[in-house]
Write a structure and sequence with these properties.
By secondary structure, this protein is an alpha/beta fold. The chain contains seven helices and 26 strands. The longest helix has 19 residues.
């Protein structure tokens, strides 16, 4: 058996960033930038007013009250072609270009206007309430860097940079094949000994949340020829995921049949719980991850191994994956030689500290517990027994790659 860390490194090392493609900005949310997004404009393009009021020459209002002639009226999107001279002011509104010659804005609350004159009642410093050209960004600036997951904020920023399209990574195409005579699709007649297939649907949802396109190949029975035929459906995929059939039982045929088809096996056991019988290899140009059949094992392995694999394909920074910490909410016994991932519920105490309480039973067939869990408590091999109140590392559960 190899360690979790080594398994992650081997899996991630097998993938390169996928080719870029051009998408309309309106369709770019949740995609990953393949090239830097460079601004095509300066914002603001000229100095503009930050407030409604009057554009003035600061030295004219050093002593107040000061009476000035109003010689212009400028709104956002308009301009004043002249130059403000001493003793003059311009009525101005938020976002409007500051007239040449003016170097400050007096807010309208500090003035009294009558016809073409204005009385300024408070002085202002030079530059007051003026947004200089390029305050936000300038043409040629790298606004968004390659490898960034595009949020709703990023879409707005790209629009402000006058970018109608972006170059993003192609979505990874992930083929999913469930295996086993006992597996039936949800909604089918369920006879004695049959199990409703949840793994393939859960994996498909995971792939979608992580920014990929799932390709459901169906359910393969424990039959060599049928397995061989259904594996062919993964041709052209960026990754093949199988569920079940990778252990050592006489009906666990996935590893055997893929071997007959020429798969180069890298490893197939990891020192972890749940998820020990995980297989990784390559058949032709297609990497293969063989996941355990137990539903919880499948989903835990998806979080730990498939997510970084997809981030590698999307050209994202794998090193950003970090565990959080929480206070243990109940006692834990000593751990054995396998890295353990315990489903747990998370709450915050009166001091705002995160408290993680593992479920008392961690059977890898119990999907209800996984659905109720907020995090996984991560325990290293050989970890000693711990009392409630100790700090532990946790892996938060929930949310895909897409963000606001």
């Amino acid at each position: 058996m190899i360690s979790v860390e080594e398994a992650i490194a081997r899996i991630v090392g097998a993938f390169e960033p996928l080719a870029p493609e051009q998408v309309n900005l309106a369709l770019a949310h949740g995609r990953v930038l393949a090239e830097d997004a460079i601004s095509r404009r300066t914002q603001p393009p000229v100095a503009v007013s930050a407030m409604d009021g009057y554009a003035v020459i600061a030295s004219d209002v050093a002593t107040v009250p000061a009476n000035l002639d109003v010689v212009a009226y400028v709104v956002a999107g308009d301009t004043f072609d002249g130059t403000l001279k001493p003793g003059q002011a311009s009525r101005i509104f938020t976002g409007a270009p500051v007239p040449d010659g003016a170097n400050a804005i007096v807010i309208q609350e500090n003035t009294e206007a009558s016809a073409d004159r204005v009385t300024v009642k408070e002085n202002v410093d030079e530059g007051r309430y003026i947004r200089p050209a390029g305050l936000d960004f300038s043409a040629g600036d790298v606004g968004l860097k390659s490898g960034r997951l595009l949020s709703a904020r990023d879409i707005g920023f790209a629009a402000a940079m006058n970018l109608p399209w972006l170059m993003v990574r192609r979505r990874p195409r992930i083929a999913i094949l469930a295996t086993g005579n006992e597996i039936v699709m949800p909604g089918a007649d369920i006879g004695t000994g049959k199990i409703v297939s949840s793994n393939s649907l859960a994996l498909g949802a995971t792939i979608t949340a992580l920014g990929g396109d799932p390709l459901q190949l169906g359910i393969a029975p424990d039959d060599r020829e049928t397995l061989r035929s259904m594996f062919a459906g993964a041709k052209g995929a960026d990754l093949l995921l199988t569920s079940g059939g990778v252990s050592v039982g006489e009906h666990d045929l996935v590893r055997s049949v893929l071997g007959e088809e020429g798969m180069e096996l890298d490893f197939w056991q990891i020192a972890m719980r749940p998820g020990k019988p995980l297989m990784f290899g390559k058949i032709g140009e297609t990497p293969v991850i063989g996941l355990p059949g137990n539903p919880v094992s499948t989903m835990v392995c998806a979080m730990i191994f498939i997510k970084p694999a997809m981030k590698a394909m999307l050209g994202m920074d794998i090193s950003r994956e970090r565990l959080s910490t929480a206070t243990l909410g109940s006692d834990l016994g000593a751990n054995d030689e396998r890295q353990d991932y315990l489903r747990a519920q998370l709450y915050y105490d009166d001091s705002g500290n995160a408290v993680a309480t593992p479920f008392s039973r961690q059977d890898s067939s119990m999907m209800a517990r996984l659905a109720e869990a907020d995090c996984l408590v991560v325990r290293l091999p050989g970890a000693p027994a711990l009392k409630a109140g100790h700090k532990v590392e946790i892996m938060p559960i929930g949310g895909g790659l897409v963000q606001i």
